[in-house]
Fold these 2 entries.
Entry 1:
Amino acid sequence: MIEWWNSLSVMMKVLWGITLSASLIFIIQSVMTFLGADTGDTGLDSDVSGDIPDSPDGTADGADAHGTGQGLLTFRNFVNFFLGFGWTAIVLRDNISSTGVLMLVSILVGVILVAIVMLLFKWLSGMQQAGNINVFTSAVGCEGKVYLTIPGERAGAGKVQITINNSVREYDALTDGDTLKTGTRIHVTEVIDADTLLVEPLESLII
């Protein structure tokens, strides 16, 4: 192993160092992604499967700020570029005699790999956003039950579970009437914000 390393040119040593480092980081990223870890704003990962709060205009908050979850200048994109660049240069080193042509081809492959990953994240982000429920347009009139007691006269918030588009969701809830105990059947009369609903007991609908 040492003899092989010593036999390499300076350029190949640099290429191997970059490629192995990028490969190791890529493996760590992949493992953390499959484990559902959020690696934050460094670009190590984009949690496309996380919940994105709804906004009144029907779009997901943060969708514009983060776009696809993959800005152009992110750590992940740098890793992907050097992964494609490095392995291409190593594999084709003996087939392309011109160093300039080899570098050009390697850079092109690196850029293509970055583009593919960005498109993949954009597609996954679009699927996730399409699955979001807009509480402002969908919750009013939905029925459910009290999960945690709701104090009367808006004295405090409790929690309810309601069914929206055949999906059971949990929200904070207030009521204008009497205290609603756990298990009380309710329906939604108003959406106060993305996380809080105004509810009343179903019995109040009986005349």
Entry 2:
Amino acid sequence: MKPFKILLFAALITLISCNDSKNQKYLPSSIGAMNQVTIVMDTELWKGDVGDKVREHYAAMAIGLTWEESIFTLNHVPPKVFSGALLNSRAIVYVQKDTVTESGVNTDVYATPQNVVIVKGGTNEELIAGIDKTANRAIKKFKDVSLEETQKRLLISLNKEGVLEEKFNITMSVPSIYNVVYQTDNVVRLDREIQKGNMNIIAYEMPVNSFTNDSTLVQDIVRMRDSIGALYVPGPDVPSKVTYMRTEPAFSPSIFPSEVAGKKAIEVRGIWDIKNYPMAGPFLTYIIDDPENNRKLVVEGFVYAPATNKRDDMFRLEAILKTIAFNK
């Protein structure tokens, strides 16, 4: 290449790079506690029926916990103080009286990753309609971003024991603070200590043709969990009594269709207890179709933490379980 052409080529590259830099928007990293939403609206609206509608959606009760906890912690601020670090909140719902009526969910407005719900209207009825319209989509986005951020933090220090890969040919981003406490050919259990209790992960296999009858699905899942608990999750020693983890018989678990690692799955949320002993807590189970390996793979997280909130602990377990990957 001749010197003149080399110089011309370099000048074009520099010009393109400068234009790209001007067009690119640089944003700070978003901030905020897990499952926290910043609600920006006038105090008068917050205290009235518009605020009630926001709470109906964003402070709905989480499923499968031992006591009532909302899906998000709401932090209300009036518009006049919505500035500074608050602009970088990871999840924002902005509701405002305006001559223009609009509603939508925007991404990366002030920071990244970030989702901002904008609802405007001239009347309370228009604001309420906008909140109803955007809530389901926003809640999913808020949760997805929180899961992704939580999963990034898992990578800082991972368990290196390799037992899940050895037994099931899968990988999962389990933090190093978890230790293998039990393993057989087809069952692995890990746990970690937390304040006043522990968090647990258990994985095992079921026959590929399990859970094919929709009419008995709940009973079949409960029967599976209880049999696994009886064999592999014993309770405290109580003279003349048998103790083990089971599905709390007074509360039927909630079941949802799901997808994990690109595979069809069943999501189960409910309460466990210990037979013949006063212990209980929430659990989350994924029953994953894995026809390539002629099985259903079951992964579950459960928490024991008496007299404490458990929403965020269960969210961390969900984040871990959803990192599962099937090796080729």
